[in-house]
Write a structure and sequence with these properties.
This protein is of the alpha/beta class. It has a single domain, classed as Rossmann fold (3-Layer(aba) Sandwich), CATH 3.40.50.1820. Helices cover 27% and strands 18% of the residues. It has ten helices and twelve strands. The strands form two sheets. Strands 1-2-3-7-4-8-9-10-12-11 form a ten-stranded mixed β-sheet, sandwiched between helices. The chain has a two-stranded antiparallel sheet with strand order 5-6. Helix 1 packs across helix 2 and helix 2 runs antiparallel to helix 7. The protein starts with a helix and ends in a 7-residue tail after the last helix. Bound molecules: beta-D-galactopyranuronic acid. The site of beta-D-galactopyranuronic acid has 7 residues, from helix 7.
Length: 442
């Protein structure tokens, strides 16, 4: 029998938060025999039935798929803002005990210091002679969370309260320094010769259903990827195919690359993008749209990320649309109870990164994210990679725990829970070391 207290607590919470209550009522399947068997759409067949037989034809199919994901899942994002400007706000050549140079850069999205700004934290490994590759990722709890370094500027942006992490009254406090350092082994990354770049995802948009009203979605019109001028009128409502929060966070990552392209200390053709969980979904969507990301890494991204939507295991489309309606566009809600009608599935999102290397990482206990569904999705993206003459995912079967595969599509199943651990970074650094040197210049 279940203990009564958690059930009562969930009930009380459900009364307070109607969407949480509605979400709790949605059945969740963990039975492999009941995952369903709807056929997956074929990434190598156009909507009109024409097969894709060459990398050249894939370029066309790629546009079609991007359009489908924009229309039905993540929404249409704008392009680079016309007035985007950069301002270095601090530099310390002797950070982390001399290991790195710390730089903080404001990305002024409307060109103005008092408009929306992304605060980029960048560490450059000291002693590197030329442009270095970069490990980039959005963080959940503010830049100071990634390392106890006392020199990182405390953010003033809204954050969800998390007392144990030092976030109180929706603000980061001194106590938040290093609160997620275990997920970002910054020193290890730097010692391996990579720069490290991060941004607080809430700089783009606070993560709640009304977040868009104060985030970038209220400022920039969704124009389908064209360069945009600042919106003249405040945006008061979003059309059903406009970008969702994942789109907004992904767009911010592209703005970081806009900056990195201007910084000669790094090699902006070698940006490795990593994202965990909802930010893993974000990394996949960013890498799909913007080919400047050299390598994309999705960690425990699950539903709406690497995991197949048609497989009903763990979190499903209906549940994610109910708990997190703001992450996706309006049209995606239509598929909550009819996933088979979705014209795409998540293996095609992975395939949109082809032929660039991509890594899907799962965790054994993270059933909610459907680890097997993440593997099958990576595997189903493989034919697109093979069209380019690469090995795709060189694993015919789901690998056992701690049997990493570092083919052009990389994969591992780590022991343990939904998290980012040193084991994951060891794999990703080895994967990046292996694949970056071989990558052609654009
Ligand atoms: C969960 C959500 C997942 C995943 C996770 C996270 O609540 O259901 O899709 O994104 O949050 O981002 O930590």
């Amino acid at each position: 029998m279940k203990p009564l207290f958690p059930a009562l607590f969930a009930l009380a919470l459900g009364c307070l938060l109607p969407s949480a209550h509605a979400a709790e009522a949605i059945p969740i399947n963990y039975d492999e025999a009941k995952v369903g068997n709807d056929p997956l759409p074929d990434p190598l067949t156009f909507a009109n039935g024409r097969p894709v037989k060459s990398p050249r034809a894939w370029r066309e199919r790629r546009q079609e798929l991007l359009e489908l994901f924009q229309t039905h899942v993540y929404g249409r994002s704008p392009g680079r803002p016309r007035d985007l400007a950069f301002a270095v706000t601090s530099t310390d050549p002797n950070a982390l005990g001399g290991l790195a140079t710390r730089k903080e850069v404001d990305l002024r999205l409307t060109g103005k210091a008092n408009g929306p700004v992304i605060h980029l934290l960048l560490y450059l490994p000291n002693g590197a002679t030329s442009g270095v590759p970069v490990m980039l990722g959005l963080n959940f709890e503010g830049n100071p969370c990634v390392n106890p370094d006392p020199g990182i500027t405390l953010p003033t942006a809204w954050m969800r309260d998390h007392k144990e992490a030092g976030i109180v009254n929706n603000r980061a406090t001194e106590a938040s320094r290093g609160c997620q350092a275990s997920r970002w082994n910054v020193e290890k990354i730097l010692r391996r010769g990579y720069a490290f770049a991060t941004v607080y995802y809430g700089d783009l948009e606070p993560d709640h259903p009304d977040g868009w009203k104060s985030g970038v979605r209220s400022v920039f019109p969704a124009t389908g990827g064209r360069t945009v001028a600042k919106s003249r009128e405040p945006i008061t409502a979003l059309p059903d195919d406009a970008w969702g929060a994942i789109g907004a966070w992904a767009w911010g990552l592209s703005r970081v690359v806009d900056y990195l392209e201007t910084d000669h200390a790094v090699d902006a053709r070698k940006v490795v993008l990593m994202g965990h969980s909802r930010l893993g979904k974000t990394a996949l969507w960013a890498g799909a749209q913007d080919e400047r990301f050299a390598i994309v890494i999705s960690n425990n991204s699950g539903e709406g990320g690497a995991a197949l939507a048609r497989r009903d295991f763990g979190e499903n489309v209906r549940r994610i649309n109910t708990s997190f309606p703001h992450w996706f566009n309006g049209h995606f809600k239509r598929y909550s109870t009819n996933v088979a009608a979705l014209p795409v599935d998540q293996h095609e999102l992975i395939a949109l990164t082809a032929p660039r290397p991509i890594y899907v990482a799962s965790a054994e206990q993270d059933k909610w994210a459907d680890p097997r569904g993440e593997f099958l999705s990576a595997q189903a993206a493989s034919p697109v990679y093979r069209l380019f003459g690469t090995d795709g995912l060189a694993a015919p079967e789901w690998p056992a725990v701690h049997q990493p595969v570092h083919s052009t599509i990389g994969y591992h199943l780590r022991a343990g829970a939904h998290d980012v651990l040193d084991y994951d970074w060891d794999q990703w650094l080895a994967f990046a070391d292996k694949h970056l040197p071989a990558m052609k210049r654009r």
